[in-house]
Amino acid sequence: MAYRAISSELLISAEASLIFDILADPSRHAAIDGSNTVRGHVGEQTRLALGSTFAMKMRYGIPYRIKSRVYEFEEGRLIAWGHLGGHRWRYELESTGEQTLVTETFDWSTSRLPIAIHILGYPRRHLRNMEQTLQQLAGLVESTSE
After folding, report:
1. How many degrees, rounded to 5, is the angle at CA 57 between CA 29 and CA 141?
2. Which of 36, 78, 87, 100 is least surrounded by CB atoms within 10 angstroms?
3. 145 backbone dihedrals φ, ψ, rounded to 5°
């Protein structure tokens, strides 16, 4: 299958470790979600690691819950998770001194129904959402690190 992914990146004025701590904490995901679909976490959440599972309260038209698993993890640098649909959300962090380049990727190369994702316009929609997510992440961490 051909590789299918879109990415957005933003240079954030904060240390990679601070940014990664937020990404690795599901209870913080609603605060940075640019799609306005993540409503909160379900149950007790611990810091994510490779193989961790976590559940989120969501709303896209109707409320629902979704369980995800962490498939890629490199402390302070990379984290990616996916759910039953098979596609993944990936965050890569690259320190550049006092700033961090954060790249968010929506990867549907592992999706169970990649053609449906394309037909429904998710790549285009998710690009806008990822840009907003990175802006919200920047606002959160830059205010914390001041």
Report:
1. 10
2. 36
3. -85, -5
The residue with tokens 């959402």 is 129
Q: How many CA atoms lie within 13 A of 36 on its CB side?
A: 3
DSSP E strand boundaries for the chain: 5-12, 38-41, 53-60, 62-74, 78-82, 88-96, 99-107
Residues 47-69: tens digit of each pLDDT: 999 999 999 999 988 998 999 99
Instruction: Yes or no: say if 89 and 37 are a contact pair by the CB < 8 Å rule.
Output: no
Question: What are the domain boundaries of the chain?
Answer: 5-144
Q: Which residue intervals of the chain are DSSP H helices?
A: 16-23, 29-32, 114-119, 122-144
39 is written with which tokens?
């409503």
Cβ(77)–Cβ(92) under 8 Å? yes
For the record, the structure tokens of 50 come out as 């490779």
Q: Which residues of the chain have pLDDT under 50?
A: 1-2
CA distances from 10 to 23, 126, 134 (A): 15, 15, 6
pLDDT in tens, 111-125: 888 778 888 777 778
Structure letter (DSSP) for residue 13: S
